[in-house]
């Protein structure tokens, strides 16, 4: 007798079924109640403000200010978060209902298949008994598709050969079709079970995906950002929400917090009157900063880190360990004063907190972070929050790479993607270098990046270039002052980030070792007339270490560069015909991003640094999942890692193509002016 599992559920590993739709609906209903209550609360606050309008006194004015300026906005923010949460819970409930329903059908299908196997195994055993053979098959072992040779037994001993053959043929013709049908049904039942197992595993992933979408939706609300910024205990989170709604923390408003100080008596040795208000946009010379810091006694340094962390955390020329310590104090400040943050600031701080939590988990698991994190810069004072995050030890690394993003990459929006991209590059660099700890990467999101309306101009790039140039010189100054040896300094820029980076490299005091441009939106031809204007070292005699790549499917950047009249580092880049308006910069080394199957390296199929989605966007506006310029196992990432670690293979070196300069001339064709690229002697 063949043993068959009694129930199908035992064959399905894991489960997509837990919790209930009713529980999710209850959460959505709670969010609806919060919406109702906050509407009523805001209405009451407004009524109270109106009632006080006719009363004139300092005390009443203070109360009115709190009602209208803190309590009402706080409740409105909570209402908006609850509304978004309700929408997210409803979408999650629909997904869970679908998954649970399909899961139940799959269990029933497996049960039905097992029932089929029981029935057909009994049929196989009946036939085997009828034809005089002994068979034994496991439930998941399909019987052969041909009937075993029948055996006549002792009763056939008196039959002659012809009679025995006729008897065997009779048994075969009687049972062969039944055997074949039973074996076929058994086989199909096993196929159905395997299909159900595959779909079951997919449902588990779909459930995880639904949960992740819910968490992202909840986390992307003002309340979600607040919780990310707050401490981890329940009491801390409740307190954070209360503080944010009330706009106060135990009677102390955030503006009075010492952590935001922009002046300090001890800064007088560096800045006039010790006022550091303008150090982000106009930092003092990094070499002077490094010398000043070196002259301070340890107790003064500690005092400045504790009492003026915004200043110390954002001064190019200071050791990165020092800046990291100061900026972590600013992160702690946001936990204590969440009401001081705008929605954009909250989003950025939530991303930074996630990065720091990941680092902390790694230290617990492995004894060290992989890689260690340094908060290089953190500025909440401007219209756009800005940040720079280091991966590795910038005070000791032999090779450092500074990443510069392009348009629509303000820190709150883009840190998550550049965190992944920088980690990918850090790992790839270690793989090509053959030894750990020698590299460091900085995700520099330190400027107000343009949107579609501003990307055709150069204002954002020019403004950000001042700060970025100071950071690059600061990396040189702090290492020189610290006696750790000046590292190799590389700049890796993407899209509009190349516009900024090339301007910055006309401003730096110290040359960088290499510039790498990915999907360039083009240098500004006025500020950067040629590569000769860039302070970049030579890779070999007569050849500057300027590298450029552009995926064949990426048409966005050359379109924008052509429309803006900026230059083009990649002669083969096409942008819907607008590339003709861009002069080509000569003298760079071009490498491919279109994949290298022989080495298992994927192509880049769009403009993104990190791809997402099943397909690339139309015209290569975005990359598909796994096919961005800095996604893992892409040809572009592998080449960038080799270049930035001075480990260029012979194969990669042989693939470099030196770009030839081309200018743009306007000619008349059929009565119309059209651009035409022509060869340039200046390459």
UniProtKB/TrEMBL annotation:
Q: Output the superkingdom of the source species.
A: Bacteria
Residue span, DUF1023 domain: 386-524
Tell me the InterPro entries matching this sequence: DUF1023 (IPR010427)
Name the record gives this protein: DUF1023 domain-containing protein
Q: Source species, please?
A: Leucobacter massiliensis
């Amino acid at each position: 007798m063949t043993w068959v599992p009694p129930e199908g559920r035992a064959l399905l590993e894991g489960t997509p079924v837990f919790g209930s739709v009713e529980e999710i609906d209850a959460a959505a209903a709670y969010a609806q109640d919060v919406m109702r209550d906050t509407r009523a609360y805001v209405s009451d606050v407004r009524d109270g403000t109106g009632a006080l309008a006719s009363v004139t006194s300092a005390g009443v004015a203070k109360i009115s200010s709190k009602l209208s300026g803190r309590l009402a906005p706080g409740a409105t923010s909570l209402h908006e978060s609850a509304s978004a949460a309700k929408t997210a819970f409803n979408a999650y409930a629909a997904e869970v209902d679908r998954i649970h329903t399909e899961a139940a059908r799959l269990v029933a299908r497996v049960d039905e298949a097992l029932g089929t196997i029981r029935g057909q195994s009994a049929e196989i055993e009946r036939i085997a008994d009828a034809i005089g053979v002994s068979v034994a098959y496991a439930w998941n072992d399909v019987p052969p598709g041909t009937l075993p040779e029948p055996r006549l037994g002792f009763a056939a001993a008196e039959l002659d050969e012809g009679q025995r053959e006729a008897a065997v043929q009779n048994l075969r013709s009687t049972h062969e079709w039944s055997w074949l049908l039973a074996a076929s049904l058994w086989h199909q039942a096993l196929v159905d079970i395997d299909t159900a197992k595959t779909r079951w595993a997919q449902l588990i992933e779909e459930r995880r995906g639904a949960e992740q979408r819910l968490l992202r939706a909840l986390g992307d609300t003002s309340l979600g950002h607040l919780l990310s910024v707050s401490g981890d205990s329940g009491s801390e989170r409740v307190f954070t929400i209360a503080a944010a709604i009330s706009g106060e923390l135990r009677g102390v408003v955030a503006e009075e917090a010492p952590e935001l100080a922009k002046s300090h008596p001890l800064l007088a040795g560096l800045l006039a009157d010790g006022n550091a208000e303008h150090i982000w946009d106009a930092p003092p010379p990094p070499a002077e900063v490094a010398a000043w810091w070196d002259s301070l006694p340890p107790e003064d340094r500690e005092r400045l880190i504790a009492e003026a962390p915004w200043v110390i955390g954002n001064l190019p020329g200071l050791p990165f360990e020092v800046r990291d310590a100061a900026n972590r104090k600013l992160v702690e400040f946001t936990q204590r004063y969440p009401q001081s943050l705008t929605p954009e600031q909250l989003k950025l701080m939530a991303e930074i907190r996630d990065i720091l939590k990941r680092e902390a988990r790694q230290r617990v698991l492995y004894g060290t972070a992989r890689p260690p994190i340094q908060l290089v810069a953190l500025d909440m004072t401007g219209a756009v929050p800005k940040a720079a995050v280091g991966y590795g030890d910038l005070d000791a690394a032999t090779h450092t790479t500074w990443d510069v993003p392009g348009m629509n990459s303000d820190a709150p929006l883009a840190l998550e993607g550049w965190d992944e991209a920088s980690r990918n590059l850090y790992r790839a660099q270690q793989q090509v270098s053959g030894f750990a700890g020698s590299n460091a990467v900085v995700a520099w999101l330190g400027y107000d990046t343009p949107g579609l309306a501003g990307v055709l101009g150069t204002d954002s790039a020019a403004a950000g270039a001042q700060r970025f140039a100071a950071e690059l010189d600061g990396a040189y100054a702090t290492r020189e002052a610290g006696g750790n040896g000046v590292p190799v300094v590389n700049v890796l820029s993407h899209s509009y980030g190349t516009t900024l980076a090339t301007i910055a490299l006309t401003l730096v005091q110290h040359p960088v070792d290499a510039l790498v441009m990915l999907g360039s939106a083009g240098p500004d031809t006025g500020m950067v007339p040629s590569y000769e204007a860039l302070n970049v070292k030579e890779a070999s005699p007569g050849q500057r270490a300027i590298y450029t790549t552009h995926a064949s499917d990426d048409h966005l950047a050359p379109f924008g560069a052509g429309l803006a009249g900026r230059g083009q580092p990649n002669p083969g880049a096409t942008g819907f015909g607008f590339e003709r308006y861009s002069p080509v910069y000569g003298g760079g080394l071009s490498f491919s991003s279109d994949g290298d199957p022989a080495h298992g390296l994927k192509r880049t199929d769009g403009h993104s640094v990190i791809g997402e989605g099943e397909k690339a966007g139309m015209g290569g506006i975005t990359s598909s999942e796994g096919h961005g310029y800095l996604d893992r196992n892409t040809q572009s990432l592998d080449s960038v890692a080799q270049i930035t670690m001075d480990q260029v293979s012979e194969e990669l070196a042989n693939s470099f193509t030196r770009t030839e300069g081309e200018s743009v001339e306007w000619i008349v064709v059929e009565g119309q002016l059209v651009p035409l690229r022509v060869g340039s002697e200046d390459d």
